[in-house]
Amino acid sequence: MRSLTAKPESALRRAVADTLAEASGREVRENPVLPSSGGPAGNALLTAWTALVLLALSIGELLTLFDVRGLISWHVALGALLIPPATMKTASTTWRMASYYLGRRPYREAGAPPLFMRLLGPLVVVSTLGLLATGVALVLLGEAVARQSVAMLLGFRVDWVTVHQGFFAVWAGAVGLHLLGRIIPALRTTVMRGSAAGQAVPGRWARGLWFVTMVAAAAALAVVLVHADGSWASHGFGDHQRVGPDGRSSS
């Protein structure tokens, strides 16, 4: 019996050790550099820079929660700005993992993230996309419709605001853990490399074009959604109004 439990315990200790080693920067995965696109090294740069953009925007979005009624337009605008980089980061990490599991040699040589980060990844993606999607839905539905009950869960009334808040709770926990595991590797890949190291990876112009496209899409989306948030701008997410059977709200 002792030998049967020893292997799982050993594997668990190894998984924890690998995660801590990479999170602290004591171990660094080497990303092969390929012509044209840069290969795994180019992918790592694109992912890391996008992650830092997401971090900055997320901090701004979290700050609006201190007065979400008064800062509702900022809350919507920053949420809209988050959508393109979140989509880009999801695409770049999905490409990398798909390339790894499909057996593409450069990505196999680069290796996969530690086990805990691989298990956490899908939760980060689902909670992020769910949070952003429900946020857009709230803006497009308007306050009266968004506050109408869509289900009952354990005796509690659930509306679209509740769903959005639920995704936020999951996102906060998952992304918090993800940040602890990835912030140092991301900084080492980007700002701590120096400009010369970044230029040495082929595909710089392609990555720049992706970033320009991301910024343009984010700006356009922010303008559209801010102009569509009229009912929320009048009352705010925290202003719970009574909604009648006809969908009209009253004070």
UniProtKB/TrEMBL annotation:
The chain crosses the membrane at residues 44-66, 119-146, 166-187, 208-228. Keywords: Membrane, Transmembrane, Transmembrane helix. The keyword Transmembrane applies. This is Cytochrome b561 bacterial/Ni-hydrogenase domain-containing protein.
